[in-house]
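Journal club side-thread
Mid-discussion, someone asked how the predicted structure for our own chain would compare to the paper's figures. Pasting it here so we can look after the session.
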Amino acid sequence: MAPSSPSSSATAAAALPAPAQPAWQISYGSLPPAADDTAAAPWQRPADWLALPAIQPGEQKLVGLVAVFPGEGNVLALRATGNYTVDWGDGTVEQVSSPGETIRRRDEWFSFGFYGAQQRFSITTTGDHRWQKLIANSIDVYRNGVRLAAGEYQIEENSSTSNVELVLTTPPASNQYTYIYGNWSWGEPVIEAITAEHRYSYASLPASSQCSRGYRQAIVTLTPQAGSHLTRVDLSPRHSSLSRNDASTPWLDLAMYLPQAEDGTSLVFCGYERHSTYDYLGNVERIVIHDAGGATNFNWLLYYFGALRVFQLHRAEALEEMDGMFCYCHALEHVELPPLPQVRSASEAFYECMALRQLSLQGMSSLRNASYLVYGCNALRELRLSGVEALTELEWTCENLELLERVWIEDARRLRSTANLFYECRSLRQVVISGADSIEDMSGMFSYCSALEVAPALNTAFVEDMHEMFYDCTALRHVPHYDTSNVTTMESMFSGCKSLVGIPVFDTRRVTQMRWMFSSCSALATVPALDLRDLQDMDGMFSSCYALITVPLLNTEALQTMAYAFSGCYGLKNLPALLVGNVTNFSGCFSSCTSLAAASLRNIAATISFWGCALSKAAILAIFQELASVSGNPSIDIGENWGTSELSADDLAIATGKGWTVLY
């Protein structure tokens, strides 16, 4: 949807089309755009809502539609800075005058714990505007809980370090632990926002404003008086007649142009962040911000706006924080944001926006914290993040989004971790990640993505951890040739991938953990010749690989444990002469290997069982020949093999003569 013209708020919202797909696609696993038969009709502005007046570019104005119900209790309050005019929309126009500048006091704390004779401590820098606005005689300093007198310390500007320092007159003893703490205050001149209140009468509003939803309507207009500016606007204050701290105001539709908004929290719609209350706009269905001026903080801006359906922001060049911005906006279905290059944090920004189906965030080149960005967005089907060059981790970001199908992540050059990024995204089919050339941790990245058939192309040159990367991806059929030259663990990497038939020849020279790597890969028929020179643990590596017939000769010299390595491999016919002299645990290694006819393992030195296999006499003798001479009386169980009954005493002596107990 193209950005609205300033006057578009006066018209009904058009249907909101899906965002354009990127021009490039991976060559496999892509999906054509499909109609969403389960989607509700896009929000349409009710035809009998009063049209909002136009706002021209550069104006300082807020206009909003409010509902007025039959009976008492139709109250509204707002707060703004400077001298402003509020037209309440029922014939009442109020002029609000500011008392002028006041000094807002703010406290800064410092503390230091140390051993020895340290004497100087940096408090801040000489260029810190807060220090420059120090309130005289406001410094309090304590040493080990005792307040110091003015003569026991001094404050100096250190020209060599450009720091403001606290200097103790008498340093502590060299063997003494000392804890210094204190605070200083600074003040800034501000124009405090002034609250205006109004009470509506349903009967005094024209009948022509009656809405089919059962209320009449008024349009509120907020503008600055001549020579003044709207630098702060707050719609969350409670009317003085209300006592509860979770009041909801009757705004329905809002549009604003606030180019003179100051830095900090200068736009407030919900009292959660600004006033520690739960006063909010619980009925508003659309908000359009044409210009947010210098506003830097939108944290929890729309917290619990349960009726909000559409949000449009066209300009917010100074915005830095948007943590929890749309948290619990359960009905939100369309979000339109411009590039936001200054935003550093968007943690929980869309937390439980359960109606949101598509989301595109672009041009967030400073974004560093996106934790729980779309947590609980259970209807989300498409997500696009682009221009996120500063983002270092996306762990658990899309956890349990069971309808998510397509994701594009572009220009994530500093991304280091995608651990559990798509955990339990059971509808995920297409992922494109570009520009992410430094990822080190992909553990659990696609765990339980049961619809994923083709693993995406990824730059894995720096990845060290791939454990559970495709855990229980039951539909996975194809895996590209990833660069795994730095990977050290592949534990459970493909466990539960029941459709996987084979994998490329990965570089596994540094891998030390492959336990349960292919567990329950029931269709796995072949395994390439992997370099296992550093592998120490292959417990359960091929457990329940029913289709596996053999494995190639592998360099297993460093291997230490093979517990349940081939357990449940009903189709396994033979094993090559794997060197297992350092293995200390073979527990259950060949349990239920009912077809195993040959296992020429070399230098076996720990208790091992071939019970219930299909070994002939010759196969058993071959195993006996490869047994190491041992002490401690380990055992080898060859019971329930058809060749066991043909063994002679001399045959058994091959094993017993090397210190083994033969069970059969």
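Post-session note: Confidence is low (pLDDT under 50) at residues 1-32.
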